[in-house]
Amino acid sequence: MTAPPLAVVAGTGFYDLEALQDRSEQTVETRWGPARVTHGRWHGLPVVFLTRHGPGHTLPPHLVNYRANIRALADLGCTDVLAVNVTGSIDPDLAPGDLLCLDDFLDLTRQRPLTFFDGSGPQGVVHVDVSTPYHPELRRELLEAAAALGQPMRDGGVYAAFEGPRFETAAEIRLARLAGADVAGMTGVPEVTLAHEAGLRYAAVSLVVNPATGVGEGTEPITMSEIEAVLTRSREAVVAVLDELVHTRATFAEEDAG
Ligand SMILES: CSC[C@H]1O[C@H](OP(=O)(O)O)[C@H](O)[C@@H]1O
Ligand code: HPA
Fold it and tell me: Which CATH number is 15's domain given?
């Protein structure tokens, strides 16, 4: 039996997965609009890659069509989604380049379409459970992949999802800190909750690319050049963890087949 494709969804700085072989592009039409994906094989396993801001990063976080993206992945038969979100660190013990395997989120977004269940579908009104937002089995795979590479990855972290596209004020970051947030981003929600609604297993790696506003030494403005510099030196670490995870899956698949 062919394994369902593994979905990889990434954003800023992650516009391609160079390791993919036998590549093909597809625009998947969904009830919520089109989604652009790249199909390929990674260590022989089928993978669907989706860059959430679109090729060339044309969509700001509040205008990403999260519903089309997640619906497309489900329609393509994916069951597992590995997401990458770059973030600003709220926890002062975190530094640019650090990786976290998220285990919870705070939704501080304001104006996004949040749900597939708007009451008009056959299911009517649905309230999904998100007491375990990030799938424990996928989290374990990510953490084991990082450990196998000797790549530090914090086990757990609370992602505060802000509306964007502006960065936060220092007061907003202090508020999120009081509520237990470790990192700030703009795209993790509603991606994670839509994945739940679609019945997909979802886990996310967060790569810290800057101290969030007001965190750390002083009150330096956040610049894209500092973020790009961190991405240039740390992007490969994230890809290496995903590569190790897929390689491990491929090894198990071969053993099962043999
Ligand atoms: C370039 S900083 C703001 C930008 O970075 C984060 O991207 P993503 O979550 O797609 O990795 C943040 O959410 C914003 O989209
Ligand atoms: O500081 C930040 N805030 C929100 N989203 C982000 N994405 C990267 N850095 C940040």
Answer: 3.40.50.1580
Ligand 2 interacting residues, C-beta cut-off 6 A: 86-88, 162, 167-168, 184-186, 209-210, 212, 222
Is the pLDDT at 123 greater than 80? The verdict is: yes
70 vs 54: CA distance, rounded Å: 14
Ligand 1: nearest atom to the Cα of 186: 13
**How far apart are alpha carbons 21 and 44 in whole angstroms?**
8
Model pLDDT, residue 124 = 86
Q: Which of 13, 57, 64, 83 is nearest to 245 (CA)?
A: 83
| Tokens (6 digits) for 151 | 């790549």
Q: Is residue 1 part of a domain?
A: no
In a domain, 125, yes or no: no
Are 98 and 152 a contacting pair, CB within 8 Å?
A: yes
Indicate whether 123 belongs to any domain: no
Q: Is 186 annotated as belonging to a binding site? A: yes
Residue 69 has pLDDT above 80, yes or no: yes
- Ligand 2 centroid–CA 100 distance in Å is 14
Domain count, the chain: 1
Ligand nearest to the CA of 83: 1
Residue 245 is part of which domain span?
Answer: 6-110+130-257
Distances from the Cα of 256 to the Cαs of 6, 86, 245, 249, 253, in angstroms? Answer: 18, 35, 17, 10, 5
Whether 190 is covered by a domain: the verdict is yes
* pTM of this structure: 0.97
Closest ligand 2 atom to the C-alpha of 212? 1
Do 33 and 108 form a contact (C-beta atoms < 8 A)?
no
Q: Which residue(s) pair with 203 in the sheet?
A: 82
